[in-house]
């Protein structure tokens, strides 16, 4: 009987020891694997992850659909618009990073990021960049909204519109504009600021636009005129400093500074002016469905949270 008890005790002890060993090995193995993944993904000059980060090897395509208005006369008379969908206009997006400083103490990389777009004729066929579409003039609507937001001008809005719009937009007779896809997306709709020294309304409008320059849809040329476009063929997204992930893999890609600053002064409220998240080309490992990483958009100068929605087969 004593021998049977001893054997039973030994069996239980053995099972317990094996279970502890398996759990320990599983826990340690999981930590070892995660640590190895973190090391492989961390940004080290010359590594595979570094080269993939510099220039993404996976092609990125941007498909654009435009709704052209086919009955502008009816709309101008107060009727409902008829919309015709045109697209997709397909562009290849190329992102390239230019690193110029590695801070090993902070574990950060400072770099600039450029984006270029090239029109893909084959994937867009039979559509082309020279197709003419009729849309609401985005520059005219933008000017109207800016004027409406200037404190003290709301009561004078109609007067300012009558004074500023004709010289800035070549006396438009409608809120609609006929433009090629290339003009709408890249070249931009022009805003004439040459007469700002003779027209107080134009001067006020162009001065207000100066403060809107961080918003990337606006661009100022050598003549002092502005243009408003949805995209640009070449965009410099500014200077970023991000966490390289060597010390903390979970912080890989986190933006520490943008254009040498850790926050902005564009918006009302501290949260809106925070700089952080990722530049969307580099996310930390070990994300799951409950994770809510943020990406920083230089187009709107703000962070945008990413929330899991569903699996895609």
UniProtKB/TrEMBL annotation:
Pfam families: CD36. The chain crosses the membrane at residues 6-29. Keywords: Cell membrane, Disulfide bond, Glycoprotein, Membrane, Olfaction, Receptor, Sensory transduction, Transmembrane, Transmembrane helix. GO terms for cellular component: cytoplasm; plasma membrane. One of its GO terms (molecular function) is scavenger receptor activity. It comes from the Eukaryota. GO terms for biological process: sensory perception of smell. It is found in: Cell membrane. Belongs to the CD36 family. This is Sensory neuron membrane protein 2. It comes from Laodelphax striatellus (Small brown planthopper).
């Amino acid at each position: 009987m004593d021998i049977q008890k001893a054997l039973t005790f030994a069996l239980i002890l053995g099972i317990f020891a094996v279970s502890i060993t398996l759990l320990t090995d599983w826990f340690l193995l999981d930590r070892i694997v995660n640590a190895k993944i973190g090391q492989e993904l961390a940004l080290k000059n010359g590594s595979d992850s570094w080269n993939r980060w510099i220039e993404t090897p996976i092609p990125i395509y941007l498909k654009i659909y435009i709704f052209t208005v086919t009955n502008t006369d009816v709309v101008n008379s107060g009727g409902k618009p008829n919309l015709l969908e045109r697209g997709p206009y397909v562009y290849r997006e190329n992102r390239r990073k230019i690193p110029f400083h590695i801070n090993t103490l902070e574990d950060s990389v400072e770099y600039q990021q450029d984006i270029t777009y090239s029109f893909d004729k084959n994937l867009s066929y039979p559509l082309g960049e020279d197709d003419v579409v009729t849309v609401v003039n985005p520059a005219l609507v933008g000017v109207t909204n800016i004027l409406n937001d200037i404190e003290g001008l709301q009561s004078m809005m109609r007067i300012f519109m009558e004074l500023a719009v004709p010289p800035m937009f070549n006396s438009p007779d409608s809120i609609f504009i006929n433009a090629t896809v290339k003009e709408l997306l890249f070249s931009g709709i022009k805003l004439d600021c040459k007469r700002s020294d003779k027209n107080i309304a134009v001067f006020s409008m162009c001065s207000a636009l100066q403060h809107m320059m961080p918003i990337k849809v606006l661009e100022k040329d050598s003549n002092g005129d502005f243009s408003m476009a949805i995209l640009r063929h070449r965009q410099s997204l500014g200077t970023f400093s991000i966490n390289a992930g060597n010390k903390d893999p979970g912080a890989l890609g986190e933006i520490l500074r943008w254009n040498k600053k850790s926050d902005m002064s564009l918006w009302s409220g501290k949260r809106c002016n925070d700089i952080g998240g990722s530049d969307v080309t580099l996310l930390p490992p070990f994300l799951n469905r409950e994770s809510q990483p943020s990406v920083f958009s230089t187009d709107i100068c703000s962070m945008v949270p990413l929330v899991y929605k569903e699996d895609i087969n």
